[in-house]
Amino acid sequence: MMTQMIMLTEPPKNSSLFVKAALGAVPVPLLSQRKSSLPDRVVRLDGYRVDPDHLAAYCRATGLRFGDSLPLTYPFVLSFPLAMRLVVARDFPFVAVGAVHAENRIERSREISVSEPLDFETHIENLREHPKGLLVDAVTEVSVGRELVWRQVTTFLHQQWTSLSGGPKPEPKPEEVPPPPMRALRVDQKMINRYASASGDHNPIHTSTLGAKAFGFAKPIAHGMWSAANILGNIEGRIPEKATYAVKFGKPILLPSTVNVYADQVDGGWELSLLHPKKGYPHLTATLR
């Protein structure tokens, strides 16, 4: 079978994608069961020009510096609608609504100027089982001309029963008060609403108490990629041009919350984390190399 290529002239509107995602969550009696394999599709968007106003809104929402080059995490929000376009398809193995961002890995080969035209290509691969559900990777490559400048693997978890579910659970780690942080960070709904607007990710688990409760959260939760971007502000100006940023998301940050911020310089880069201030469990752990 040939790979289906979807060529776009502009990024899809997130609002229409979320409507599609919500409709995808409604069972249709005549529709056969969702397929157990991934559709072979690629989404391309060529010659994209960054809107400086959008970039400024993103920087305001994440606390990152607005300048002539793109923050390390910024292409994520540009490519998010491309990945969503693939995930909301009717023949995708699971429903997009309620899928959780589990891990993220960004590789940047050099800094990207605001003025450079960007070519995006996104596909989904590596559908696999996990004790908590199905994992899948959205892979995006960003090129300037023929030069690959930025690549990302976003791992989503769809919580459901799989053949790996129901085994013995690992012993919970004992809760312990974490060491004194570099600083404490207060996260509230207003900050997250600002990020939802700038990123276009209006998933109700982030913006609505009812929406969060529908997916088992007591309160709305912060976007994982908001925290992944915000924590980089602590080492801004010290991030190398050529960098690999690998993030694992732990327990979500319920809104409002105060979290402990850690940034430790180690051989070859940084170890970063956001921990619960009383119980010590991680909301985010990351390495920058």
List keywords for this structure.
single chain; 289 residues; alpha+beta; Thiol Ester Dehydrase, Chain A; 11-stranded mixed sheet; 11 strands; globular
* Terminal CA distance: 39 Å
Q: What's the number of extended β-strand segments?
A: 11
Element-by-element helix/strand order: EHEHHEEEEEHHHHEEEE
Task: Count the DSSP helices.
Answer: 7
* Mean pLDDT over all positions: 91
* Cα shape: globular
* Spans of at least 5 consecutive residues with low confidence: 26-32
Task: Describe the overall structure.
This protein is of the alpha+beta class. The protein has one domain (4-163, 175-288): Hotdog Thioesterase (Thiol Ester Dehydrase, Chain A, Roll), CATH 3.10.129.10. The chain has 7 helices and 11 strands. It has helices at residues 14-24, 52-62, 74-87, 189-199, 204-207, 209-214, 224-230; strands at residues 4-8, 41-48, 100-108, 118-130, 133-144, 147-159, 183-187, 243-249, 257-266, 269-275, 282-288. Strands 1-2-4-5-6-3-8-11-10-9-7 form an 11-stranded mixed beta sheet. A hairpin with a 2-residue loop joins strand 9 (257-266) and strand 10 (269-275). The radius of gyration is 19 Å and the shape is globular.
